[in-house]
Amino acid sequence: MEGSILVVEDDPRTQRLLSTQLTARGYSVQVVDNANAAFSAVTNSPPDVILLDIGLPDIDGIETCRKLREWSSIPVILVTCLDSLQTKIRGLDMGADDYVTKPFQMSELLARIRSVTRRSAAASRSVPPVVEVGDLRIDLGKHRVTRGAEEIALTRMQFEMVKELALNADAVLTYEHLLQTIWGRGYDDIRAVHALLYHLRKRIEPDLSNPRYIKSVPGIGYTLRNGE
Ligand code: CA
To answer: pTM score, two decimals?
Structure first.
């Protein structure tokens, strides 16, 4: 399957055309004919790409795009029948990713769909999260840990440990999970986890006797969460 597409279009002929052609090329297609139905569809089953007609009966496509961008980053391709530069610029300013002008060639539309999908996949891969727990800030992209204004130097293993905890912030990670993730399969000495955790805490916790960031869950594992 190529992915899922939400077609927001009130013209039955264009609806049929897009639905038939995109389905034939392996996309799963959902069609709605107004902006409010589009908001529900995006909430209920978020598509990979939205094809958004500019002239809709309830809210125009550009305004729809602006509203959508307040809470969703799903790629939007505007479908306009006005070959107006002004409209295209407004659409892109409101957060649309691209546009096609009716009547369009199916091959052109497909190329644009592939291109926005690629871009959004690349963007979600290339923006590594920054996790903040109280004043502790773990920048996974830059391999950088700070507490307030203070830079904290960690060894590679200590960073691996805090990274795994940060990627799963608030979840309890078992000793086994940490062992397998950080040391790899075949390593079975749980004491290594406790020892590494001890040294990591020494670096990041202001008070070792009362850890603020990494909490112990006795008998189970550890969790990174905002201390009270
Ligand atoms: Ca229309």
So the answer is: 0.57
